[in-house]
Write a structure and sequence with these properties.
By secondary structure, the chain is an alpha/beta fold. The chain has three domains: 4-72 and 103-180 and 281-358, FAD/NAD(P)-binding domain; 185-279, no CATH class; 369-457, no CATH class. The chain contains 15 helices and 19 strands. The strands form four sheets. The chain has a seven-stranded mixed β-sheet. Strands 8-2-1-12-19-18 form a six-stranded mixed β-sheet, with helices on both faces. A hairpin with a 4-residue loop joins β14 (207-211) and β15 (216-221). α10 runs parallel beside α13 and α13 (404-423) packs antiparallel against α15. The chain is globular. The structure holds flavin-adenine dinucleotide.
Length: 458
């Protein structure tokens, strides 16, 4: 008899995981709070686009879905930076033309649900999980018939997002560690429509950023020629959601900070006023598992801010590595599976949360800073000159499977190295000289030693 697994939440992570588990031979049911989004049109201002990078693709590939999803993904090879005077510069993400990919969260979710059902997964919609008895996996569900308790399932996996019902049940247990915090910024979505014949009104293959120090606007391309823009903006303060209210405020604000965008969004005033303002939360918690009964995955285990474009990517990596662990164990030995999963993933969840918080400062401020740009250029050169030794932290996170914890641990060693190189003088002028080459070799050897130690520790 195949074991029954209940997944809470048919979001991105729950849907992908259901396919992987069903294909492995378990019998999977998903309880989803919302109605079936495939029967709805996406409401305005709720059309989030996600940047998919290597970890996300690897999860999809494991489920045999990469090619299918590639059809709805647009490669972005770098950041297109929009200065306040309207000038634009392009910063490539990788040294070998690597890209991250713009994918509509809604479209991706719909596709994953359909593919899950095709694989034999049962998705039950309008089933809001209210509580779970941790000892026997009895799930209390609210639906159109009121509150019911479902039959018990062998295993429950909660992929029910940042406000997980299973995590709430964990909170009531003794010595549960829990930390939740909001950044002072929220976000609002706006849309740049397509031009004639679905043409793109800005560079299609880039992630656009208007960095304005304490806030920023970004835009990702959609298949229909439009761009989904997100304004990350403080809730309160002199220039904030609170202070920008009237038509005049909105117009003056955009004219002052984003003059080139104004003409591209004909419905700016109504979009700004009608689209919701949402908050951004980080959650760290421990444990992620309860005995051999149930566990957390994706945002339920590690909700993070979106500035590294890694929330979904990390969640898909959770799924892929969990399947790897199941593969290595008896597939019904959940004590071992849970233990190994938590040991492997908890440090990664914390690290990616910290990386995401750090990257907000990089995106909204540093990408327009000349010293930072010089540093980025040197990073790329070092990567080309010493490919076996040096990979920037951004490349480790987005274009490799380096554990997040290892990537963040390398940050300080890279800061020290780059500091020395930049202090030495103008890199382009120095690099042809023998003295500098020798010096650089010494520094790189020291750096390699530091990295070796980090790898031993993590
Ligand atoms: C503005 C923004 C931009 C982002 N950009 C990126 C990006 O570029 N790249 C990236 O990798 N990530 C990005 N993310 C993060 C990404 O969206 C999330 O990490 C990802 O959606 C997490 O997937 P999940 O399945 O764990 O959770 P969710 O997507 O939140 O899905 C949870 C599901 O559970 C259901 N549910 C919730 N509660 C219950 C309940 N009680 N009972 C039953 N069902 C329930 C929900 O309805 C939902 O379907 C971004 C997020 C935001 C907000």
């Amino acid at each position: 008899m195949n074991q029954k697994i209940s997944i809470l939440g048919a979001g991105l992570v729950g849907s992908l995981l259901s396919i992987l588990l069903q294909k492995k031979g378990y019998q999977v049911t998903i309880f989803e709070r919302r109605s079936d989004m495939r029967n709805l049109t996406l409401s305005a201002g709720r059309s989030i686009n996600l940047a998919m990078s290597m970890r996300g693709w690897a999860g999809l590939e494991m489920a045999g879905l990469r090619e299918e999803i590639e059809q709805i993904a647009i490669p972005m090879y770098g950041r297109q930076i929009h200065a306040i005077d309207g000038s634009q510069t392009f910063q490539a993400y990788g040294k070998n033309n690597e890209a991250i990919y713009s994918v509509s969260r809604g479209e991706l979710n719909k596709k994953l649900m359909t593919l899950a059902e095709k694989a034999g997964v049962e998705i039950l919609f309008n089933q809001k999980v209210i509580d779970i008895n941790l000892e026997n996996n009895l799930i209390q569900i609210e639906n159109e018939n009121g509150i019911n308790t479902s039959e018990n399932h062998d295993i429950v996996i909660a992929a029910d997002g940042a406000f997980s019902a299973l995590r709430n049940a964990y909170l009531k247990t003794d010595r549960y560690d829990y930390q939740q915090f909001y950044i002072p910024h929220g976000y609002k979505e706006l849309t740049i429509p397509a031009g004639v014949n679905n043409s793109f009104l800005m560079e299609k293959n880039a992630l656009h950023i208007w960095p304005r120090k304490n806030f920023m606007l970004i835009a990702l391309p959609n298949l229909d020629g439009s761009f989904t823009c997100t304004l990350f903006f403080p809730f309160e303060g002199e220039v904030s959601f609170q202070s920008i209210q009237t038509d005049e405020d909105i117009t003056t604000f955009f004219q002052t900070y984003f003059p080139d965008v104004m003409s591209l969004i004909p419905t700016l005033l109504s979009d700004y006023k009608n689209n919701p303002t949402a908050s951004l939360v980080t959650v760290k918690c421990y444990p992620w598992i309860y005995k051999n009964k149930n566990m957390l995955i994706g945002d339920a285990a590690h909700a993070i801010v979106p500035f590294y474009g890694q929330g979904m990517n990390a969640g898909f990596e959770d799924c892929r590595l969990l399947m790897g662990i199941i593969e290595k164990n008896d597939m019904n030995d959940w004590t071992q599976i849970f233990k190994q999963y938590q040991q492997a993933r908890k440090p990664q969840g914390d690290a990616v949360a910290d990386l995401a918080l750090q990257n907000f400062i990089e995106m909204r401020d540093l990408v327009a800073d000349p010293t930072f740009l010089k540093r980025k250029k040197i990073e790329k050169e070092l990567g080309k000159l010493f490919p076996a030794v040096f990979n920037s932290v951004y490349e480790m996170v987005s274009f490799s499977h380096t554990p997040y914890f290892e990537a963040i641990s390398c940050q300080q060693a890279q800061d020290r190295l780059l500091e020395k190189v930049m202090q030495a003088g103008e890199f382009e002028k120095l690099i042809p000289t023998e003295d500098f080459k020798n010096q650089l070799n010494d520094w790189m050897n020291e750096y390699a030693e530091e990295i070796k130690k980090i790898k031993l520790i993590v």
